[in-house]
Specification:
alpha/beta, six-stranded mixed sheet, five-stranded mixed sheet, 26% helix, 17% strand
Length: 285
């Protein structure tokens, strides 16, 4: 019996680390028609992002990319010193040159087993609303994070230009994305969302440092998996690979993470994880 094409996913490749780069070099499809969803944090330097996506696009039938926060940093060592939206647009054009689908492109439709579904790469950022419940404002939540020493590097490296703040950029992205979702080609189809950041606050409850959750998403996406009839939701950012269920929808955290993290796990990294097809509704791979 022929092997069925697979819809696979991975995130948080962080290819600046030599061990991670070696793992990525080993990623290969099982069939000529496998797709790969890449849910952000490929790397910080534009040249590293290009290297990884070029390699993966040469192997998989289709690669779909959603940016993480690390791609949006502007490291002083990077030859590309664009900031904020200009940096994001530069990455979008880079991806298009490689044949990689971005959040700005028409949403592709997976027609393999488990489909048809509309694959929707998202770029939404966060707006500090995943904060700890005792803090009623962004300002109070951030002040606490600085007090306890749990502050995301985004505060120094991820510039929101031309927006005044990262949460203002998030609001603009939410508005734009909802408009695009309303206009998608086949609204009757289920979706597979691909977002670097979690769509629901509850998955961040596992964090060792709950102060970090405020950099992990927005409460405004809490019902999107129901509203848009998701077959699955793919995300990363937390570096805690696992499967969760909300309202009968499967949420897959698919990050590789840093070498010190994956080396500490009981089993070695297994590469991209299978999203579709599924067996008895459970994750395979």
């Amino acid at each position: 019996m022929p092997v069925q094409p697979k819809l696979l996913a991975i995130s948080d490749l962080h290819v600046a680390y030599a061990d991670n780069r070696q793992l990525v070099e080993g990623y290969r499809p099982e069939t000529d028609d496998d797709w790969l969803l890449v849910a952000g944090d490929v790397g910080e330097m534009v040249k590293d992002v290009e290297w990884a996506l070029r390699l993966l696009a040469s192997r998989f039938r289709k690669v779909v990319w959603a940016p993480g926060n690390h791609e949006l940093w502007t490291p002083k060592e990077d030859s590309v010193q664009l900031r904020g939206e200009a940096r994001y647009k530069h990455l979008v054009e880079l991806c298009r040159g490689l044949g990689v689908v971005t959040p700005e492109d028409p949403y592709p439709i997976w027609e393999g087993e488990g489909g048809p579904v509309t694959v929707v790469p998202l770029f939404l950022l966060y707006d500090y609303t995943f904060r700890m419940p005792q803090f009623t404002t962004k300002e109070a939540s951030l002040a606490n994070a600085y007090d306890v020493g749990v502050v995301c590097t985004d505060e120094f490296m991820l510039h929101p230009d031309p927006y005044p703040t990262r949460d203002a950029w998030c609001a603009a992205r939410l508005e734009l994305t909802l408009r695009r979702l309303a206009e998608r080609e086949r609204p009757e189809l289920p979706t597979v969302f691909v977002n670097h950041f979690p769509l629901v606050r509850a998955v961040t409850d596992i964090l060792r440092h709950p102060e970090f959750a405020q950099w992990c998403g927005t409460v405004h996406t809490a019902d999107w998996h129901v509203r848009f009839d998701s077959a699955a939701v793919v995300y990363g950012h937390l570096h805690i690979p696992r499967v969760s269920w909300f309202d009968g929808v499967r949420f897959e955290e698919v990050s590789l993470g840093y070498p010190r993290e994956w080396r500490a796990r009981a089993a070695p990294p297994r590469g991209p994880r299978q999203i579709l097809p599924t067996v008895d509704g459970a994750r395979v791979g």
